[in-house]
Amino acid sequence: MASETQPHGGAAHDGSAHDGGAHEHGHFGPEMWVIPESAGLTSDIAEKQRSSSTLFTVVLYAGALLTVLGVIGFVLRLLDGFSDHRVWGFYVAAFAFVFTLTSSAPLAACAFRFTKSHWRRPLSRISELFALVSVVNILLFIPALIALPDILNPLGASNEALDIRRTIWFRVPGGSPEWWQFAGMVGLAVNSLGILWLAAMPDMAQSRSQMTGFRASLYRTLSGRWYGTKRQWQIQKAGLAILGAFYFMLLVFMQFLVVSDFAMSLIPGWKDSILPPFYTVISFQGGLAIILLMAYAMRRWGGYREIIGVAPFWAASKVLLGLTLLHTYHLFAFFITYWYGRLEVEQNILNYLMFDSYLGIFWAQLFFTFFIPFPILVSNHARRLGWGAPLAGIFIIIGLMLFHIRIFAAAFASSDSESLYYFFMLKPIPAATFPDLWDIFIILGAVGIVMLVFRLGMMLLPPISVWEMKEGAMYQRVDTLIRGRYLVLGKPE
Amino acid sequence: MAKQAILGLFQDAESAANAGDALKSAGIADTEYDFLTDSPYPEGAFGEREEKHNLYLYPFIGALLGLTSGILITAMTQVAYPLETGGKPILSLPPMAIVCYEGTMLGAILFTVIGIVFESRLPKMKMGLYDNRITQGLIGLLVNAEQEKGPEVMQILNGAGAVDVKSEDD
Amino acid sequence: MQEGKVLPAAQINRDLLRSILETPRWFWPVVTLLGLIVLVAAITIGVMINTGLGITGLNYKVVWGFFITNFVFWIGISHAGVMLSAILRLAKAEWRRPATRAAEVLTIFSLMTAMIMPIIHTGRPWRILYWAFPYDFARGVWPNIRTPLVWDPSAILTYLTSSTMFVAIALVPDFAVLRDRTTGWPHRIYTLLAMGWEGNPRQWKLQIIAGVLLSALILPVFVSVHSIVSWDFGMAVAIKSWHSTVFAPYFVVGAVHSGVSAVVFAMILLRWAYGWQEYIRHEHIDALGRLLIVVATGWFYFLVMEIVFGIYGLEGDELAVRALQFLPTESGVPYNIWMIVFVGITYFLPVILWLPRAWRRNLWIMSTACISVNVGMWLERYLLFVPGQANKQFLTFTWNDYLPQPAEAIIVGATFAFVSMLMLLFSRVFPLVPLYDIKEGDILKTEIKVGRRTVPATFRED
Q: Do residue B47 and residue B61 come from a single domain?
């Protein structure tokens, strides 16, 4: 049933809650949102990019300050040297936390582009900007690799006793795990930066004439040959799809390596096949949470209200709800198998990670990653108003920080213990470790450096994917069906 | 005052909506007529009234009942027949949680289904004025107006292009 | 991506009710043939109950064989219904419309079939009642809820009840169409089933909310069912290779993989049998093919995790099971060759067939790929369950291999006939493609002009 065609953008509005009654008939809820008029979008975003709201100034300085604290903490930690691996547990937890969240964030843009979800458009660039943190990830990874206890030859064990520490590397390649891990991390960074570059190229090309100074020359260098020909668009889209697919595979693989080598191998007797998929699920959950948090801050305090509507939050919150449920499901699947098995080592590991040494952190994590966000995300009201998902996101991010402490710091704490020789029994169960002041500095620094890099990224590149917004505007309009006014969404291809 | 049911059948949605508008202008409240269709139109497509419902309450009540039944069954059977197996406590929370979870979901789903039926005002023991052609694509406009307004309603329906108009008396 | 025409309601009724209002010539001969196969299986079951499980290949060491493999296989197939219907409904995928009901009905029938397997496997089926249900008031012997074998019936019965309700609620508007198109006693039955449905806005509104709400409620059940089935194995410490934490999601994804493939094949068959070219179109099969590539790859990842962490422990008895699965053995059963065949036909062959767009739109190629997946997934379960039991273990003095016997082959083979027969009988009395869903899709269809090009579009309520 073809309806009469109208020029698009019949109602360009930001979709905030009170717009719900703007139309006499039709189910035109606040989640219905139309991408703003494309004319002037480029210059509008460029203008926003140059200016800075109070919040963003605070983020910049706070990020810088926390980073400095982190560097101080790190330098003072260095003074302890690497001979005692256990003191590096919190550093590794902080690294893994940053890695988990920020490496999954760029995947969101690729995934929702693959599913052709229109609502992704305002979130795409925010998601891709986290690719810049991948460079930080490489830097943070180097000390973590040095701090990693010898997986293949623990405590200078003799050749016959190689099997005393279990590892996914078995006895295979030279240079493992450090060099392979490092190569993977560099590959991940190159891949994500490639995605960012390819995705931002049309936007840089459009605003290269409007920018001055460093940005102008940067844009000219990075997008010099982009003219927006049909062929260029085709190659860009295909390139993004291919890079996205590679990134997904590489990311899942790297997560498997990181969580296996830096956590599972270090806890004697811990054999847990669900841990890598579980880690991937929480990484997607955290990645989406951090994107939604940034997007909400930009919408609410950063002057992007008319560009970032409520629709992305409404739609993404359902995905976040699904990931939150999956997180808890994977956790339960691990728990029930160990609980039911009742082998001594299983009971020891459960006691160490959940019910004894890290009891408090475990329950706090469960509250932050499930019991608090779940009711928020289930509430239609909270999701419709836009703040539900970002609020849940804050709790999830705190919960994931606790998760990383519980898993990675705990793994390092048990790594050199005498229990290594008790046939993988984790016996006696080690006590929980607590961060010292330098660890706290390092954790704060990890949060700070993400804020700083993201804020600098926002200044450097257009924080909204202008071409995707303009593309979306072509395929959206508000139209009448009999007596009601509804959103019409076109799906090309 | 006695009410009379009148059913107008329209070839297309636009004429049916026109008839609805005309009824509204003639002072007939939108609670007194309904559009009958063979498939769901988007809400508000005919300019009809907004329907309120309490469906979302049902799953909560069902879940609560299901959870309670689950807890009672899992706890009472184990206490009544305390057979220790595999070194697990008689009242083991993790397995109880699994069965309670299924009970909760079953309760929620069953109550949702009951809710859907009741909130849809079904089952209807006696069909009111109806026409088989509605499920063949015609749009029905069923008016339950006061008897004295009957002729006016018929005139409006005919005027809006109804292919057929039926009343309860026919 | 809309390739179909907007059809008048009367034609949609005529086309989609053809399976009910007219009987194709092949219908009764095919149903009778399937019925005969089921009858033979029923007799075999009778003989088995009478003479005992000795007529099967099950033995002291391998106690779970063909029946349990088949049980898990059909549970897996049952996951297609909710996966397709609920997830696609929540994601507002337009192309779901013709597929949902067939998928949901397949869920119900495959669940019913799956349930038969463990029941007859017990040898004395009547006893399962007081093992699983708290009904034996006289003796005061209550089920032990600390075993996964009791979690299982609770999950499966919840799932069966929920999916039956899900289908039943969505059938009410279609019953009304049938009520209006039939006469005599069928008319009276459909009138009863339609419960006085007239299609007013309130009823439709609740029908739409019902779809979404029930989808959201049924999804967690769907995940729990196969997880719990996997815990039948995963909880066991004694049998090496089973006690793996990844089993739950691994089974769920595997179930979706085989289930969606089965639905695609069923849709192709229905399209061919009832001439539903206008409704089950190439675009739908294409979209399902793309979805399957993602699902298959996810499944493959879990498979790798399961194997890697099986070996990771480097425990002697677990390595022995893995050796049995992957290396040539002297036992006579070439599990390693089956393993290669299984991975090949479950992942590599179908994914290669699904990659080119033209192949996804070729119904022969799609059918081949989907059958290949299902043969492979059946084999997967077999290779997951049997070698672990057949392997000699610590402190056991006897061990045997397992060779399925004709009785098991007949019963397992007949389950396919049973499900096909039930699907055909269902299509004889209820519409397998939801009429109102197709009509709604047509109402919401529109287009957007971008320059010279017309892009298909849909009206959206949110």
A: no
Q: Which chains touch C (3 or more CB pairs under 8 A)?
A: A, B
Architecture of domain C9-458: Up-down Bundle (1.20)
Domain shared by B115 and B64, yes or no:
yes
All residues of chain B having their beta carbon less than 8 Å from the beta carbon of residue A339 are: 94
- Is residue B142 one of the residues assigned to a domain? yes
Pairs across B and C, CB distance < 8 A = 190
Predicted model pTM: 0.93
Q: Which of A26, A339, A484 shows the shortest C-beta gap to B94?
A: A339
- Does C172 contact chain B (CB < 8 Å)? yes
Whether B30 and B67 map to the same domain: the answer is: no
Tally of domains in chain B: 2
B124: in domain: no
Question: Which of B56, B85, B124 is nearest residue C196 as measured by Cβ atoms?
Answer: B124
Query: Within a domain: residue A3?
Result: no
The residue type found at A476 is Q
Determine, yes or no, domain membership for A4.
Answer: no
- Tell whether B33 and B67 lie within a shared domain: no
Q: What residue spans define the domains of chain C?
A: 9-458
Identify whether A12 is part of a domain.
no
* Cα of A224 to nearest chain C Cα, Å: 28
Reading chain C (462 residues) residue by residue, the pLDDT tens digits are 456 678 888 888 888 898 888 888 999 999 999 999 999 999 999 999 999 999 999 988 889 999 999 999 999 999 877 888 888 888 888 888 888 898 899 999 999 999 999 999 998 888 887 888 888 778 888 899 999 999 999 999 999 999 999 999 999 999 999 999 999 999 999 999 999 999 999 999 999 999 999 999 999 999 999 999 999 999 998 888 899 999 999 999 999 999 999 989 988 998 898 888 888 889 889 989 999 999 999 999 999 999 999 998 888 888 888 888 898 877 677 889 999 999 999 999 999 999 999 999 999 999 999 999 999 999 999 999 998 888 876 666 766 788 899 999 999 999 999 999 999 999 999 998 899 999 999 999 999 998 899 999 999 876
**Residues B61, B115 within the same domain:** yes
Chain C residue with minimal CA distance to A163? C314
- Would residue B126 count as lying in a domain? no
Mutation target to probe the C interface, by most C beta carbons within 10 A, among B7, B73, B120 is: B120
- The parent domain of residue B107 ranges over 57-119
Tally of structural domains, chain A: 1
**Cross-chain residue pair A25–B44, CB shorter than 8 Å:** yes
Residue A273 lies in a domain: yes
Which CATH number covers residue B39?
3.30.70.120
Domain that holds residue A252: 17-156+166-489
B39 shares a domain with B21: yes
